[in-house]
Design a protein that fits this description.
Elements (H helix, E strand, L loop, with lengths): L22 E5 L6 E6 L2 E4 H7 L12 H4 L6 H5 L2 H16 L4 H4 L3 E3 L4 E3 L7 E4 L3 H11 L16 E3 L5 E3 L4 E2 L2 E4 L8 E4 L3 E2 L2 E7 L11 H8 E8 L2 E2 H7 L13 E3 L4 E2 L7 E2 L21 E2 L2 E6 L2 E4 L10 H9 L10 E3 L14 H4 L7 E2 L5 E2 L7 E9 L5 E12 L3
Parallel strand pairs: 6-22, 8-16, 9-26
Antiparallel strand pairs: 1-2, 1-5, 2-3, 3-4, 6-7, 10-11, 12-15, 13-14, 13-22, 14-16, 14-17, 18-19, 20-21, 20-25, 23-24, 25-26
Helix pairs in contact: 7-9
The protein binds the ligand O=C(O)/C=C/C(=O)CC(=O)CC(=O)O, calcium ion (CA) and magnesium ion.
The site of the ligand O=C(O)/C=C/C(=O)CC(=O)CC(=O)O has 13 residues, from α6.
GO molecular function: fumarylacetoacetase activity; metal ion binding
EC number: 3.7.1.2
GO biological process, one term: homogentisate catabolic process
């Protein structure tokens, strides 16, 4: 369904038009958080409309969306599975397209400015990958100057680690500067204190729906169609001084677990069909369990923008990523690890070849040796207390339209 017009007064080129319809969890002064769908600068109380409209607006015998959407997270809706997601999207498209529904639906549209947005999913397991060749190469050069930048496994498997799901927060949540052990190579011993190299990582987060049983794997050719529900913008805040000292040999730990921010709106994969892109050539060819046809193993043409205290300092391009989301999910389950609705995996930092497309300040400032110049002339390498970072993104939609991915923002508070 790609009917471009709606009875709502909405310009055709609105980034939150009929072709987008992202899901989130909202409340209005004191009411219970529940699922909402964004259209234009409105939020539809989706469950309320599904309830009154069970017959009138035609959701009839399908999945009980009214019940699923009455919850304070998207998880019950995710658990209904990919066929229900399609039914829901077709139904929402009809509700907003056909003038006959206007009278029933309009009372359940709330201006965006009047809602509080909440974390959209109860995050089950959180995994973070490392899928950008440019990022991995840059970090390798900075952290391991005497080794090959890409480790020997990098082009054979999407490297990842399990993160801390309980500290994933919604856009707008302040982040307290973490304290921990810091030791630069030249320091004789570690010291304890607030991180002096607090950083960001601009990533996409993939929201997983449906579940598998222990021992089963998700086939790479079915991963996107059956289990990738949608996409959030994700900022994997990273304390580089803590990380550089602690990560050998088990990987990131306290340098990243203090907080990860995601956007309030989850863009359905169905809204990103026009944004699918070919992957860069994978050479060497990955093992068979990571191979699939182009309609299953694809990249995404998503344009990201990193704004630091009001200055846009970088514009990473997601289509530059080496590994496909379907390959990441297939790899994450190839050992028989099960998945659950509400699982979240990060793509890894999105960095391109050019300096102004790097997705972390570690890379942009080359570990503090090449500071970034802000529009007011000041220089920055890492985050200072009170700094604000906002990631934004958009993707091409049908017929020249744009799909807005919303934003994820956060401000740094001083260490406790
Ligand atoms: O190469 C390393 O030792 C560490 C790299 C990271 O910090 C990156 C990480 O979190 C994965 C990513 O965002 O690409
Ligand atoms: Ca990361
Ligand atoms: Mg983090």
């Amino acid at each position: 369904m790609s009917s471009a017009s709606t009875w709502l007064d909405l310009p055709d080129d609105h980034p939150f038009g009929l072709a987008n319809l992202p899901y989130g969890v909202f409340s209005t002064n004191g009411t219970a958080p529940r699922v909402g769908v964004r259209i234009g600068d409105w939020v539809l109380d989706a469950g309320a409309v599904a309830q009154i409209g069970k017959d009138a607006v035609g959701v009839g015998d399908g999945p009980d969306l009214a019940v699923a959407w009455a919850n304070p997270s998207l998880n019950p809706f995710l658990e209904l599975g990919h066929q229900a997601w399609t039914i829901a999207r077709d139904w929402l498209t009809e509700v907003f397209s056909e003038a006959v529904h206007e009278e029933a639906v309009r009372p359940h549209l709330i201006p965006l400015g009047e809602v509080t947005m909440h974390l959209p999913i109860a995050v089950a397991d959180y995994v973070d990958f490392y899928a950008s060749e440019h990022h991995a190469t840059n970090v390798g050069k900075i952290f391991r100057p005497n080794s090959e930048p890409l480790t020997p496994n990098w082009k054979h498997l999407p490297i990842g680690y399990h993160g801390r799901s309980g500290t994933v927060v919604v856009s707008g949540t302040d982040v307290v500067r973490p304290s921990g052990q810091r030791k630069a190579p030249a320091d004789p011993a570690p010291t304890f204190g607030p991180s002096r190299k607090l950083d960001i990582e601009a990533e996409l987060g993939f929201v997983v729906g449906g579940s598998t049983t222990l021992g089963a794997s998700v086939d790479v050719s079915l991963a996107a169609e059956q289990h990738l529900f949608g996409v959030v913008l994700l900022n994997d805040w990273s304390a580089r001084d803590i990380q550089a000292w602690e990560y050998v040999p088990l990987g990131p730990f306290l340098g990243k677990s203090f907080g990860t921010s995601i956007s309030a709106w989850v863009t359905p994969m169905a809204a990103l069909e026009a944004a699918r892109s070919a992957l860069p050539t994978q050479d060497p060819l990955p093992l068979p369990y990571l191979r699939g046809a182009a309609d299953a193993v694809f990249g995404l043409d998503i344009h990201v923008e990193v704004e630091w205290n009001g200055t846009v300092v970088s514009r990473p391009e997601y289509r530059d990523m080496y590994w496909a989301p379907a390959q990441m999910l297939a790899h994450l389950t190839v050992n028989g690890a099960s998945i659950r609705s509400g699982d979240l995996f990060g793509s890894g930092t999105i960095s391109g070849a050019a300096r102004d497309s790097r997705g972390s300040f570690l890379e942009l400032s080359w570990n503090g040796t090449e500071p970034v110049t802000m529009t007011d002339g000041s220089e920055r390498s890492f985050l200072e207390d009170g700094d604000t970072v906002v990631l934004r993104a958009w993707a091409p939609g049908p017929a020249g339209s744009r799909i807005g991915l919303g934003e994820v923002g956060g401000r740094i508070l001083p260490a406790r």
